[in-house]
Amino acid sequence: VKFVKVADLPWPQYYDGKGWANQWARAFAINSIPSPWLIDREGKVSTYLPGQPTAEQLEPHIQKIARPAATARG
Known about the structure:
By secondary structure, the chain is α+β, with helices and mostly antiparallel strands. The chain is built from three helices and two strands; from the N terminus they run H-H-E-E-H. The chain has helices at 2-7, 23-28, 55-66, and strands at 37-39, 45-48. A two-stranded antiparallel sheet has the order 1-2.
């Protein structure tokens, strides 16, 4: 708790002491740190890239979710 405050981490933190056996690790097959997930504008998981992806690996995924939704023209 102290580290999260000192580091000013704005995202939710979860710790239950169970390591890789905790409910979130099992539910989402998380087995590495960092475990980057890209979330789209609707709050849905768009991409999961285990390990430590490079900027080049992330870029196409970021571009995909960064584009504004297409609007219908009539």
